Amino acid sequence: MERAKPYQIKSISEFHKLLHLDKPEHPMISVIQIKPFKEIPVNLPESIVYGFYSISLKKNFKGPVKFKYGQQEYDFDNGVLSFMAPGQISVLNPEKYSSAEQSGWMLLIHPDLLWNTSLTQKIRKFDFFGYSVNEALFLSDKEELILTQIIQNIEREYCNNMDKFSHDIIITQLESLLSYSERFYQRQFMTRRITNHQILDRLNELLTVYFDGLDNSQRGLPSVSYLAGQLHVSSDYLSGMLKSMTGLTTQQHIHEKLIEKAKEMLSITNYSVSEIAFLLGFEHSQSFSKLFKSKTNQSPIAFRQSFS
Prior knowledge:
There is one protein chain. With 308 residues, the chain is an alpha+beta fold. It is 45% helix and 14% strand. The strands form 3 sheets. A 5-stranded antiparallel β-sheet has the order 2-9-4-7-10. A hairpin with a 2-residue loop joins strand 5 and strand 6 (72-75). Helix 3 runs antiparallel to helix 4 (166-191) and helix 5 packs across helix 8. It starts with 6 loop residues before the first strand and ends with a helix. Residues 63-76 have low confidence and may be disordered.
């Protein structure tokens, strides 16, 4: 049976209407308080594609609903913060989240609200909008309070009589919300050191096995998405985690391991530079030589000659 295409929701008003909520106070931003459904909406699409940003804090959902991360499990008893960007798919299942205890909030932001502000480009640089559901941010009580207060400030601002200052104040509050979220994610990376080190060790193993292959010329270089898939995390989360732990992105880790293997081949084999480039997965030897020099300040030939 063919799966139904995701339902496109372009405006915040459409989202309110779909879930039988009151009309939003503002067409480009809305804070929705998460409460138990009085009546579960019928005929909802299986999945929807947002035309706006969504930031959600969810608590006390019908259980047992647990996320597993490495060997650790986390549930919804504490606040869980998740992020979605325009174009991403969300699965709607209100029956699953219909417990009498559920609470939290959802902030919806239309991209037009950010036009010609500091967030127009900056919001795309927050990697957590690309994290998957099992990579949500688990908040402490203190962190939850900080973010909820910002949400209350935003709601208060757009619900009152708006004036020429309102838009700038809302944008400033949004920037604070995102900056705090980034800080709290860094804290989460630190508190999950054991699990994250396991992922780092596994990444190094994958890269070693990959570059120890006799011939990668047909496979090319390993991609970030390939490695993330092997590690069961999203590409953005993997790079963010590695950057926090080592200061290097996933791509930089790939290059580090590649250069390590290239040095080995240049020093102990008789392969030509072109042959080494192709064996490591490069289409053009010039690309390999350029990368090698950028990482070592030596050309592959000069590096080999230093062993003569």
